[in-house]
Design brief:
By secondary structure, the protein is an all-alpha fold. It has a domain of 66 residues: 434 Repressor (Amino-terminal Domain) (Orthogonal Bundle), CATH 1.10.260. 62% of the residues lie in helices and 0% in strands. It is built from six helices and no strands.
Length: 95
């Protein structure tokens, strides 16, 4: 019987590697935002292509953002929020 794992379980195993964790931490905010967008997009049953059309960008740009290969601009984040009917909020918090 083949066992399946979810992303959180896989992520935990991957991040047990210190080198991987250090690199992940450098991009943590980017991953967090990407994860939120993916979650909302899937909840709303919107494909990357559909989101791209709504935000006037390309599907490949959405894919690069969702895989944290490229950081989105504030302008793109704002357009994504609008397309998903969400409010974008950016703020500084104490550590």
């Amino acid at each position: 019987m083949k066992l399946t794992t979810n992303w959180q379980t896989t992520k935990k195993k991957i991040l047990d590697n210190k080198t991987v964790k250090d690199e992940y931490d450098k991009l943590a905010l980017q991953y967090e935002v990407a994860d939120q967008i993916i979650e909302i997009r899937k909840k709303l049953k919107i494909t990357q292509s559909e989101l791209a059309v709504k935000t006037k960008t390309t599907q490949s740009a959405i894919a690069r953002f969702e895989t944290a290969k490229q950081a989105p601009t504030f302008n793109l984040l704002s357009r994504i929020a609008t397309a998903l009917n969400y409010k974008l909020e950016i703020k500084f918090l104490p550590k």
